[in-house]
Amino acid sequence: MPERNFRIRVELVCTCKTEQLVGDMLCFIHHEEEEQRRNLGPSLLQTVCTGSYLDVQKTACRFHQLVKACWLVLPHSRRWRLTMLPCDRSCKFKMARAEEEIIIEIMLGVQQGDSDIFMSSQASEALFTPSTTWTLSCAVAEAKFFERMARRAPDGSFHLRCLQLCARILVGTCFSEYTLKTVVMHLLNTTPLSGWHRTRFLLRLDDIMRYLRHCLEEKRLDHFFFGNEKIPEVVLPPALQRAEPFNLFQHLAQDPDAQAQAMREFTDMQDRLTRMLLCNPGEMPERNFRIRVELVCTCKTEQLVGDMLCFIHHEEEEQRRNLGPSLLQTVCTGSYLDVQKTACRFHQLVKACWLVLPHSRRWRLTMLPCDRSCKFKMARAEEEIIIEIMLGVQQGDSDIFMSSQASEALFTPSTTWTLSCAVAEAKFFERMARRAPDGSFHLRCLQLCARILVGTCFSEYTLKTVVMHLLNTTPLSGWHRTRFLLRLDDIMRYLRHCLEEKRLDHFFFGNEKIPEVVLPPALQRAEPFNLFQHLAQDPDAQAQAMREFTDMQDRLTRMLANDN
Known about the structure:
- By secondary structure, the chain is α+β, with helices and mostly antiparallel strands.
- It has 20 helices and 18 strands.
- 44% of the residues lie in helices and 13% in strands.
- The strands form six sheets. Strands 1-9-8-7 form a four-stranded antiparallel sheet, with no helix packed on it. The protein has a four-stranded antiparallel sheet with strand order 10-18-17-16, with no helix packed on it.
- The two termini are 59 Å apart.
């Protein structure tokens, strides 16, 4: 949207008679006068203002001074070294200890009354932004709107995934992420949240593209907040609610050539989205879960050693001694296991355990910042190793886990864990390798096929699924190197058949015939998930996939000829 730039006029008002002040305390005006008489220095108004207007750079400078002064009395100052970094319109500083450092930048804002709209210290996009200019920011209102939607949305809601996927196809086009975000906010505000479930993912993606096409044809896309009185729980200034809706596509209405260009880029964007859906989503919609944690007393049901207490009573005893938070509070937000808190706790345990390990005498351990995993560096002389440990919660006794790995959405809440079949897949291939005869070539087939996928609409997960289905139904003796070309041909035939039928079942969902891999009963009984569902819904996408499959076959033939 066009920049909304403002100057903020500052006036001091005496509150001596209107507010209850403690003891001999003076109001802001008279306190300032008293301070000036004592110190003969500038007043606070002169410190942060230029004339009668609040100055961004002076305010940022004052904030810098306050941070430095407060830092000295904080307990962190004994372990961290604070360095203030130069920055005109924000407060930017670096915290460092040993080989670890964190850079923090704080943007300043002035709230409009009690609303969720702020005047921000962030510079406008103009070549020069005067120091008394503050820009209108709806960032807090947007965050509050999306937070409300996430809170009210049912489990498995996919609105942020839609936004993230569409954002990837904007690169190189004339459309901004703000345009896309505005479209999604309008649809979220008018479509029942139940309609954003993962089972309707493709329908909602289609809605987003249709809405954007309609706006382009009409040359009008209203700003979400200007003149919108139907945004629950987001507080807007009355003037903004009553304002004339602002058209983000005003430039298209004024320039027919710009509109024609936008329509061409929109068509290209649709094609890119189709190709991306063919290659992506893992290849199933992400399965996101929250993990509810409840402590249960086991004092009477389990054999405990000596005077040891069960988990609940041990926690209570620890709290009485230490007056600190319980382990449940340390790793949970509310009743749900928190990924970031759990990762932080794991970080602390690794650091504590490292000191008693023999490796600590030869290697130097540095913990690296990472929200959803435990990441650290081990170094000695000129050698260093970086290790990242993903956390997981096992589903019962199965090989399916809830992983700490972030989903592909723009924002993954800290209490969200994603379904992972990685352990089950590794166990399946490990079993096949163990039972396969010497000279078995199934992994070589997988690797060779992966090389011909580059630049196509097919993902490695599609290929891996095909190979797992064939391994599970073909005798392992048939995967000997002497039958290498036959098995390659089987893989390509199987993939062609799936493309023609517009159906490729996920290997684990609804599959009860996977030896030695333990699946949760709900997953075994689940309806088989079709990874090619998008092909069944879009004939053009299927035709494109068939063309790329033919190209892929030709590439494989040339590659085999060159190898020979």
